[in-house]
Amino acid sequence: MEVIIQSSQENASVLAAQMVARLIRSKPEAVLGLATGSTPLPFYRELIRMHREEALDFSAVTTFNLDEYVGLGPRHPASYYRFMQENLFEHINIRPELAFIPDGMASDVPASCLEYEARIRDAGGLDVQILGIGSDGHIGFNEPISSLASRTRIKTLTPRTRLDNARYFATPEEVPHHVITMGIGTIMEARQVLLMGFGANKADALAAAIEGPVSAQVPASVLQFHPRAHVLIDEAASGKLQRTEYYRHVFNNKPVWQQVS
Ligand code: PGA
Questions:
Q1: Cβ < 6 Å from ligand 1: which residues?
Q2: What is the 3-state secondary structure (H, E, C) of 50-82?
Q3: Active-site residue flag, 136
Q4: CA 38–ligand 1 middle distance (angstroms)
Q5: Which domains does the chain have, with CATH numbers?
Q6: Is this structure's pTM higher than 0.85?
Q7: CB count, 10 Å around CB of 46?
Q8: Is there a contact between 70 and 180 (Cβ–Cβ < 8 Å)?
């Protein structure tokens, strides 16, 4: 695991965007796993800026989003479909037919999950998966005690996650109980993982994920088994880590060929 501590969410997001831009420039048909929530917003803004000002080309890129609420259609203001349109897809030259999001309105949920997995496989697998982290340590919507080998499926949100996400809904009761999420096994097959976490309210989850034991109690801790997992965080989110000096030392002394910017 590589832990990169930056002075601000903005700086960490620019770095993450540079890593993804480098991938797209070397492999125009790259397959990206995308995330929603407040965490990736500055990262998406930077990708949009790179598209506009530096001709970053998404025309051959395929994307797969991590998750979607069950029961919310594309037009619902809190659906992740809508989130992705407004915060990224409408502003870049991605081909709509290559941007996949789990179907929250599927009549046969297990079948649609199997189809989602097959689509990822048929696209050649994920080159990079973008992740946020829940205050309870979830990745995607894989809540604590999710199987570390899980695949795309329906999950029930914890009361804490429903509360965390209530800000996107008119009332807290409207937050759906069920979601479709890529599994932890699905995420672990991405060739590279970029997890971002910002703010003091993520410090406990990040410390448990990075420096604690690998456990289904903290789903993000499974990334300790991933050969290419990068964790980009700000100062506030690093507050509970023990080895910050070493993480900074590693980043400041990277060989030139490993450097991003
Ligand atoms: P947030 O959510 O980016 O809105 O903090 C992260 C997550 O729940 O994975």
A1: 37-39, 132-134, 138
A2: HHHHHCCCCCCCEEEECEEECCCCCCCCCCHHH
A3: yes
A4: 6
A5: 2-258 (3.40.50.1360)
A6: yes
A7: 20
A8: yes
